[in-house]
């Protein structure tokens, strides 16, 4: 059974980074919902993540990073301005781009050349990514097709499969409408965007994209 560690505990973020380094899957808070996280470039960890979720490997997972420079390292964002990326991130948005050669795990999204990339606006996970200094695969902390979770008690049935659970309290003010998680937008094509999932801050994100001259492709 996974140990539950308060995010406020001293050096909790360093412990989380060590669990990731050791190939474990852990549960972490984000700025939207709780996520399951593991090292994105570790094949065994990714396979474990999919097994825990009961998820079809054809369904992609996103990665979590620290800086805009990381977004550009792991995703092909040459056609996107720094101003646009800094306006969108950090925050409740997942930007979908084509993978770069640096993201070379054959088990990470094997059915697509694209990757979703997040920089959450959450101090704990941001500290973890900074210490770990490698991309972290991130998907919602639930079984596939279950509702996403806003507190650690909502996914207690997963504890037996996890290295540790990091408790950041109730997320998204406990609001049901926020279980949708981040807004997912495909920015892989020059000059256009495609909304894959309408999540938190959807209207604001669309306004930012259109103010930057991008047009919607439905």
Automatic annotation (TrEMBL):
Topology in the lipid bilayer: Peripheral membrane protein
Localization terms from the record: Cell membrane; Cytoplasm; Mitochondrion
Keyword Thylakoid annotated: no
Top-level taxon in the UniProt lineage: Eukaryota
GO CC terms of this entry: mitochondrion; plasma membrane
The reaction(s) this protein catalyses: L-threonine + hydrogencarbonate + ATP = L-threonylcarbamoyladenylate + diphosphate + H2O
Protein name in UniProt: Threonylcarbamoyl-AMP synthase
Record lineage: Eukaryota, Metazoa, Ecdysozoa, Arthropoda, Hexapoda
């Amino acid at each position: 059974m996974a140990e539950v560690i308060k995010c406020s505990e001293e050096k909790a973020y360093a412990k989380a980074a060590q669990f990731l380094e050791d190939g474990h899957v852990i549960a972490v808070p984000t700025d939207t919902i709780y996520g399951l996280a593991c090292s994105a470039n570790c094949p065994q960890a990714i396979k474990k993540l999919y097994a825990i979720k009961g998820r079809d490997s054809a369904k992609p997972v996103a990665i979590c990073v620290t800086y805009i420079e990381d977004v550009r390292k792991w995703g092909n964002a040459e056609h996107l301005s720094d101003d646009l990326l800094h306006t969108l991130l950090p925050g409740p948005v997942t930007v979908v781009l084509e993978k770069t050669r640096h993201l070379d795990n054959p088990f990470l999204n094997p059915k697509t050349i694209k990757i979703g990339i997040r920089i959450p606006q959450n101090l704990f996970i941001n500290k973890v990514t900074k210490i770990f200094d490698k991309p972290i695969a991130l998907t919602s902390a639930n079984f596939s097709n279950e509702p996403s979770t806003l507190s650690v008690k909502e996914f207690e049935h997963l504890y037996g499969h996890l290295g540790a659970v990091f408790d950041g309290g109730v997320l998204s003010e406990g609001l049901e409408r926020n279980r949708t998680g981040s807004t997912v937008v495909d920015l892989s094509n020059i000059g256009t965007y495609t909304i894959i999932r309408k999540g938190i801050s959807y209207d604001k994100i669309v306004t930012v994209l259109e103010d930057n001259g991008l047009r919607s492709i439905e």
